[in-house]
Amino acid sequence: QKEVEQNSGPLSVPEGAIASLNCTYSDRGSQSFFWYRQYSGKSPELIMFIYSNGDKEDGRFTAQLNKASQYVSLLIRDSQPSDSATYLCAVNWYGNKLVFGAGTILRVKS
Amino acid sequence: GEEVAQTPKHLVRGEGQKAKLYCAPIKGHSYVFWYQQVLKNEFKFLISFQNENVFDETGMPKERFSAKCLPNSPCSLEIQATKLEDSAVYFCASSPGQGGTEAFFGQGTRLTVV
């Protein structure tokens, strides 16, 4: 079992729709959870981080964390073509080591 | 600086040659991480530093890879006797503290071994 799992996609949504990206992790000792966006040929860009159970909203983005289910998700409202990218879920445990999932490719069609 | 600076952007080495990559973390950040991304696939953790001390090196292929973070110098990642499978983008990231604080990435160095 991989430590951090994501559906590789691609996930296709129409412009203006809600995109829902999901991630599960294996270690119950995980402390912090991050969503990065990576455009092709570019470096990962931090979008959201969440530490506590529940929802955290920032603009069009909402991160959701359920530690009991070992599940973290990212919702993107009013999706735009510019949101088309690979979304990486990253989980922190054992101090400061970030472990990444393989990423989900999101395609927003205009 | 306000961003993680990696040099060079591109590096081409013949098989068996040495490659050295550099990373200047964001000013004030205590932690530096190196990751390897092969062909847009998963990020493989290599090593992390707390200031100049190795924090976690569980991902390093120690026989050919080495890394340092010395005071007042950019951090470095060195690959001795490169192999074709070392071709990848090497990302450096820094974060201000321990315990899950967010990490910010540099633009990466694309290493091509021919």
What descriptors fit this protein?
heterodimer; A: 110 residues; mainly beta; B: 114 residues; 0% helix
Summarize the structure in words.
The complex is a heterodimer of chains A (110) and B (114). By secondary structure, chain A is an all-beta fold. Helices cover 0% and strands 57% of the residues of chain A. In chain A, the strands form two sheets. In chain A, strands 2, 4, 5, 9, 10 and 11 form a six-stranded mixed β-sheet that branches. A five-stranded antiparallel β-sheet of chain A has the order 1-3-8-7-6, with no helix packed on it. In chain A, strand 7 (61-66) and strand 8 form a beta hairpin. Chain A is globular and about 40 Å long. The N and C termini of chain A lie far apart (36 Å). In chain A, 36% of the residues are buried. Chain B has 114 residues and is mainly beta. Chain B has no helices and eleven strands. In chain B, the strands form two sheets. In chain B, strands 2, 4, 5, 6, 9, 10 and 11 form a seven-stranded mixed β-sheet that branches. Chain B starts with a strand and ends with a strand. The mean pLDDT of chain B is 92. Classes of the chains: A mainly beta (110), B mainly beta (114). Chains A and B meet through strand 4, strand 5, strand 9 and strand 10 of A and strand 4, strand 5, strand 9 and strand 10 of B.
Distance between the amino and carboxyl termini of chain A: 36 Å
Compute the number of strand runs of chain B. Answer: 11
> Beta-strand percentage of chain A?
over 45%
Low-confidence stretches of chain A: none
* Oligomerization: heterodimer
Rounded mean pLDDT score of chain A: 93
Q: Could you give the order of the helices and strands of chain A?
A: EEEEEEEEEEE
Terminal CA distance of chain B: 34 Å
- What's the overall geometry of chain B? globular
| Rg result of chain B | 13 Å
